[in-house]
Specification:
The structure is a homodimer of 216-residue chains. An 8-stranded mixed sheet of chain A has the order 3-2-1-4-5-6-7-8, with helices on both faces. In chain A, helix 4 runs parallel beside helix 5. Chain A is of the alpha/beta class. In chain A, helix 1 links the parallel strand 1 and strand 2. The first copy, chain A, contains 8 helices and 9 strands. Chains A and B meet through helix 8 and strand 9 of A and helix 8 and strand 9 of B.
């Protein structure tokens, strides 16, 4: 089955960075947005086989749906798309539960009732394999298409098959090494690691810190 | 002023690994333990100017006190030593609030009332500069004295002066790069990162995974 990737929130910095990298690798990409106009615009700027759509239309034939929206939009967006997911589709949640969602800081995270943003997504998507991934990949680094990414991609989830598909997709990005971080309830550790990088970016006045796990 | 380091919980794997590295660098080290006998034994095996003591005696003339005890022993140990700290002493907390303290898993962390184990330590030590550090340095890697450590040391705290002293100490360990991760309330992110490494060790059957921040 051909991989078709929908990036929901694909007009934001993180989403369009991922979309551009996958398009560059020859993957068919659907950009989803609340605004069809903005989705078209982002798709045109990426080029290749990339197309732009309203969020529910973007996911309709996607085998992998990547959610890159702020925490404040996560629940509503999932409710908007869940009726349109193709059978067998995998949902990848990249949400970092930053305190900024309630007017706080981008370097702090909230403790969610479900334990993590990815588990919150899984609760809203019964029966759908959810993988947590891509939190640590800097939007700025993704956007520099001629540069490899100096960052590992830690992923977790409860379906080995879904993790394998996401691993294969992630490894199309030059420089990215995928590391299996276990079941979905480890997502809070990945979300925390992303907040740590945001905090280091602010403190050390850079935009693209990343992380590498040594000893593996 | 000469640096004198007390390692409280210095007979455990993490504490004795740190103690051995600092002793190797020529630092004067006091090993603290609840058992004076075990402290003597650990000090003898490390050698150099290292001496063994009951915890309160170990900290009495130390300029930097490093706490490497399990979460279950953290509060009691701090109460035991706080009356014996030298004026101006810095306390470095390396506690990772692992769920194992309540019979759970070593790859999960508890959410503490204070936000992190380091903030819990700071609450119990009013007026004492507390730095969170050393969580991610593998005990196994520390013990291999002829090998450099392939891991960054993220540190945080509210006293710039105390962080500078801990940075200078940490950089005596070959391979370690110290990264300032901000104020003490970021300690939860460092504690989470350590739990992530423990989880990766278990999953990938290694004992000494570490982390490097890229882009800084």
């Amino acid at each position: 089955m051909q991989t078709i990737v929908a990036v929901v929130g694909g007009t934001g910095a993180e989403g369009s960075g991922l979309a551009a990298r996958f398009a560059q690798a020859g993957v068919r990409v659907r950009i989803g947005s609340r605004s069809v106009e903005k989705a078209h615009e982002a798709a045109r700027s990426i080029g290749g086989q990339t197309t732009g759509h309203a969020n529910p239309d973007a996911v309709a034939d996607a085998t992998i749906v990547i959610l890159t929206v702020p925490l404040s939009a996560q629940v509503e967006t999932l409710k908007t798309i869940r009726g349109s997911l193709a059978p067998g589709a995998i949902v990848v949640d990249a949400t970092v539960p930053l305190e900024v969602a309630i007017g706080g800081r981008v370097s702090r995270i909230l403790t969610l009732w479900d334990g993590s943003a990815a588990q919150q997504a899984a609760r809203l998507l019964p029966g759908v394999p959810v993988v947590a991934a891509f939190h640590a990949l800097s939007a700025e680094a993704l956007a520099k298409l001629d540069h490899a990414i100096d960052c590992d991609a830690l992923i977790c989830g409860d379906s080995a098959e879904a993790k394998a598909a996401v691993k294969q997709l992630a490894e199309t990005i030059p420089g990215v090494r995928v590391i299996d971080a276990g079941p979905l309830d480890n997502a809070r550790l990945l979300e925390s690691a992303a907040a740590l990088l945001i905090s280091l970016n602010l403190r050390h006045k850079v935009k693209d810190s990343g992380l590498r796990i040594t000893g593996l």
